[in-house]
Amino acid sequence: xxxxxxxxxxxxxxxxxxxxxxxLQDASWLTIAIVAYLWGGVINHSMTLxxxxxxxxxxxxxxxxxxxxxxxxxxxxxxxxxxSVLFKKYHQVCAFISLLDVTCGFWRLVVPEITIVI
Length: 118
Fold this sequence. Notes:
Number of helices: 5
Helix content: 55-70%
């Protein structure tokens, strides 16, 4: 069952991050570093959790995978590293591998010829 409020939380977090960046445009580097660590880190972590939920199609439901993917891409705007679309495939591979009781590592997905998990 999907969460109908998830999309509003994601839009709110992205807009909050963008507004914060705008408000800090004239701030000192020390202020920016402190706010980025304390405020931005919390929102970025929440966004990674939201992208995890989107990978299970919980924002718009399983009947609308394209809408879930678009929301994941939108939510990924504030993270700096584009991983939303790849995460779903990676997460499904890890779920399958964990059934086999094998450690799942990121390098195994990106470079399949490497057999040692780093």
